[in-house]
Design brief:
Layout (H helix, E strand, L loop, with lengths): L2 E5 L2 E3 L5 E8 L6 E8 L6 E6 L6 E3 L7 E6 L4 E6 L8 E9 L13 E2 L3 E5 L2
């Protein structure tokens, strides 16, 4: 019954914006670091951004730094990925994942315990 559900994907023109949401059900996210990942056609899955339990620490892939912003609202049990200035190369299935933390204000792109099923983002004119 522990699930992560992504939403907000779709078709957007280059230069446009989207906000993805990752909502948890069956558990609360306030003890989890959260990561956003993406997998483009024919490529390996890569970490895009992650956020610590408190939200005080974040990491971004070089390819998205300055354009994407990760945030969380523990009261809503939801994590967001705001994407601006989108490029065709951002086209991918985007996944969120949660890693149980036992203290520590950091996040990493490995050791994730729960994964969502993904939402497709297509950037094309």
């Amino acid at each position: 019954q522990l699930q992560l559900v992504e939403s907000g994907g779709g078709l957007v023109q280059p230069g446009g914006s989207l906000r993805l949401s990752c909502a948890a059900s069956g558990f609360t996210l306030d003890d989890y670091a959260i990561g956003w990942f993406r997998q483009a056609p024919g490529k390996e899955r890569e970490g895009v951004s992650c956020i610590s339990v408190s939200g005080d620490s974040t990491n971004y892939a070089d390819s998205v730094k300055g354009r994407f912003t990760i945030s969380r609202d523990n009261a809503k049990n939801t994590v967001y990925l705001s994407m601006n200035s989108l490029k065709p190369e951002d086209t991918a299935v985007y996944y969120c994942a949660a890693r149980k933390m036992y203290g520590g204000n950091y996040c990493r792109f490995y050791g994730m315990d729960y994964w969502g099923k993904g939402t497709l983002v297509t950037v094309s004119s």
